Each structure stands twice: as structure tokens, then as C-alpha cells.
Amino acid sequence: MQKKSQQHIEKLIRYTLGFLLALLALNAFGGGYYGMAGAENVPTEWLKGSPFPNYFVPSLILFIIVGGSALIAAIAVFRGHRMARKASFICGTITLLWLTVQIAIIGYVSWMQPTTAFAALLILFLAWQLSEAKH
Questions:
Q1: pTM of the predicted structure, to 2 decimals
Q2: What is the pLDDT of residues 100-116, one digit of tens each?
Q3: Rounded to an integer, what distance in angstroms lies between the CA atom of residue 18 and that of residue 13?
């Protein structure tokens, strides 16, 4: 009975983690595309003092690095791949680094920043909870 309960918890952790990673990927792809398309209604004054004249390069990084790492990790988690835990840790870390740099450059400008930070911390926690034996 205990083994079945443990398997149920492991499955719940895996699906919750996979869902969060997929949601993060979708958000990063959407935000990255929006920024690369010109980031209409987002003031470029926020970039003053940064190395970026517009949002194209940061958005490209968001799309490829943040979104790509989240998608790869989500696929690994859903497939039960042995690298799922490591990929999830890497993605969570990348996301927190992304947010740190973003806030350092443009400041706190959206509820999405703390929400994404919370999601990244939850990803790290759930990745830590994943059983190493199966992944």
C-alpha cells in the first residue's frame, strides 16, 4: 500500500512540474515573440542605461534560452527521462537569473515578475522532490 501511495505522489510531482515547465515555456515563447515583434506599448525608456537599444535581443534570449530550457525540461519530465531532474534545475536557475537581470535593467514593472519568480522557485523545489531513481 505504501509503495502505491509513494508512486502516486511521484506521479503528482512529475505532472505538476511538467505542467509548470510547459506553462513557463509557453509564457517565454509568447513574451519573446512579442518583444522581437517590437514590444508595442512597452516603453523603450526602461532600457536606458542598458546595452540594448530595443527589446529584440533580450526577447530573443527569453525565447531561446528561457523558453527553450523550459520546453526541454518539460519534455524530459513528462517522458520520465533520467535527465529530467537536472534539466528542471537548470531551467529554474536560468529563469531566476533572467528575472534578476531583467529587474536590474528595467526594475519592477509587472506582477509577472514575482509570479514567474515564484514559479521558478516551485520548479526548483519540485525538481528536488523528483525521485532520482526513475530519472
A1: 0.91
A2: 999 999 999 999 999 99
A3: 8
Closest CA to 77 of 4, 13, 9: 13
Half-sphere exposure of 82 (CA within 13 A, CB side): 1
The CA distance from 20 to 26, in Å, is: 10
Supply the pLDDT for residue 79: 96
Average pLDDT of the chain to the nearest whole number: 94
Q: Could you give the CA distance from residue 121 to residue 95 in angstroms, rounded to a whole number?
A: 9
The residue assigned the cell 521558478 is 120
State the pLDDT confidence band at 6, using cuts at 50, 70 and 90.
Answer: confident
Which amino acid is residue 40, in one-letter code? E
The domain segmentation of the chain, as residue ranges, is: 7-129
Question: Among positive and negative, which fits the CA dihedral 42, 47, 53, 55?
Answer: negative
Q: Retrieve residue 38's grid coordinates.
A: 517590437
Distances in whole angstroms, Cα of residue 34 to Cα of each of 46, 58, 78, 93, 113 = 16, 11, 27, 23, 16
